Automatic annotation (TrEMBL):
GO molecular function, one term: oxidoreductase activity
Limits of the FAD-binding domain: 5-352
Xref: InterPro entries: FAD-bd (IPR002938), FAD/NAD-bd_sf (IPR036188), PheA/TfdB_FAD_monoxygenase (IPR050631)
Organism: Enhygromyxa salina
Protein name: Hydroxylase
Length: 442
């Protein structure tokens, strides 16, 4: 086994595997190390894969039929705002040639990415390999890793020009290099638990295709029912951290109680059954770490974490890996020194991710941490959020085709409210009802 590489990547899930694929395609000698075997579940993941994410996966020549095997294509989502109204969202404009999205099985998805590395002769991918620490040269620069491999009694040392931490929220690489947190929103932390269910009832709105259902109960909690792989649903209960902590009982009992207390959610689960264990994250961190240093860089969740409300996690991992790959390929081609290339990556990654980070934090504050007065929910919020122009703008925002700045200016907000109010009156008089009304029985 060769012990010398251009780049060593610690972590082989979306960020690490996609980075390795891009570097391997350019001919760099890459070592990828992951403590898991594949397929295996990541620590916590409730993944939407939206069209802009599918487009980045296309760049890696991955087969959608494999990573989304036995997973239904979703063409719309429905946001229920308490018992006030429903808003309908579709990708009316194709992104990367697609108007659909998935709630993928992460074990299957990650295995597809990992297995794809076999296409690149210059990439060595070692599973069930635990990184024990980093190596440094005389000047303190990171120059490799020490790792424990299966079927080896002694730890082995591997050296490289650059070591990448793609090892998730609790990154060993980030700890070893003492990467500081440079930006954080600890005031908006949420708690999330999820499980898979079988036998979930249809949404029941008379439309043929099955939507992803998002239910905000306007009391600090939000719920998602996502059709996923193998005829199962992923059912998520998310809420303010302090609201979750105030609930008594085991996580399973709290989760069950939250679902049963929401009629719009429980009407679909009353005849269903939970399969598999409850999993979750007691505290979502919202932060950026320092992205690089002498001989090292961070990517994916090791670098940047934010709440899952806008379903951007996998996209952010793939995008930051793409930006880092561009910097590393240029450096090894002699275009610039490695430290300058990593500095360029850090600037580019923050510029690409920070606007959506701020937008997601604003949504967490508005939709989970703040409860609107009933009058405002029934009028202004309904008129704006159910407007088809708002829906188009929002879907272009979450697919990163629209910058968050200027998403809802005061003149636009007033225009949408006035137009939405008039449209609601016309709909009621014309049809005797409104498709944005809550479903009966909720």
């Amino acid at each position: 086994m060769d012990h010398n590489f251009d780049v060593i990547i610690v972590g082989g899930r979306p960020a690490g595997a996609s980075l390795a694929a891009r570097l391997g395609r350019a001919g760099l000698r890459v070592l990828v190390l992951d403590k898991s075997s594949f397929p295996s579940r990541p620590a916590v993941s409730a993944p939407f894969v939206l069209p802009h994410t599918l487009a980045l996966l296309d760049e890696l020549d991955l087969d959608e039929a494999q990573y989304a095997a036995d997973t239904p294509k979703l063409e719309r989502l429905v946001l229920e705002f308490g018992s006030y109204f429903r808003a309908h969202f579709r990708f009316d404009e194709p992104v990367g040639g697609r108007q659909h999205f998935y709630a993928v099985d992460r074990a299957r998805f990650d295995a597809c990415l990992w297995d794809s590395l076999g296409r690149y002769p210059s990439v060595t991918a070692l599973a069930r390999t635990r990184v024990l620490g980093l190596l440094r040269d005389e000047g303190g620069r990171v120059c490799g890793v020490r790792a424990s491999l299966p079927d080896h009694d002694d730890a082995l040392e591997f050296r490289a020009g650059c070591v990448i931490g793609a090892d998730g929220r609790h990154s060993l690489v980030a700890r070893e290099v003492q990467a500081p947190v440079i930006e954080e929103r600890s005031d908006l932390s949420t708690t999330l638990y999820y499980a898979h269910w079988e036998g979930v009832a249809d949404y029941g709105d008379g439309i043929r295709d099955t939507p992803a259902q998002i239910h905000s109960s306007c009391d600090g909690f939000s719920f998602v029912l996502m059709p996923s792989a193998d005829a199962q649903y992923m059912v998520i209960a998310q809420g303010r951290g302090d609201s979750y902590n105030a609930l008594k009982g085991s996580p399973d009992a709290v989760y069950d109680g939250l679902l049963r207390a929401r009629p719009q959610v429980w009407r679909r689960l009353a005849g269903a059954r939970q399969v598999g264990e409850l999993r979750g994250l007691k505290k979502f961190d919202n932060l950026f770490r320092q992205a690089r240093g002498p001989g090292w860089a961070l990517v994916g969740d090791a670098y940047h974490q934010k709440d899952s409300l806008d379903a951007q996690g996998i996209y952010d991992a793939l995008l930051s890996a793409k930006l880092l790959a561009d910097a590393l390929i240029g450096s090894f081609a002699g275009e610039r020194e490695l430290d300058a290339a990593l500095a360029s990556y850090a600037n580019a990654a923050h510029a690409a991710l920070a606007p959506m980070f701020a937008a997601t934090m604003d949504r967490v504050q508005r939709e989970i941490y703040e409860a609107p007065p009933p009058f405002v929910a029934r009028t202004l919020l309904r008129w704006v959020l159910t407007h088809e122009r708002y829906a188009r703008r929002f879907m272009s925002l979450v697919t990163r085709r629209r910058e968050p700045a200027g998403f809802l200016t005061p003149p636009l907000l007033l225009g949408l409210a006035a137009s939405g109010a008039a449209g609601r009156v016309a709909s009621v008089f014309r049809a005797g009802g409104d498709p944005t009304d809550p479903l009966p029985g909720g």
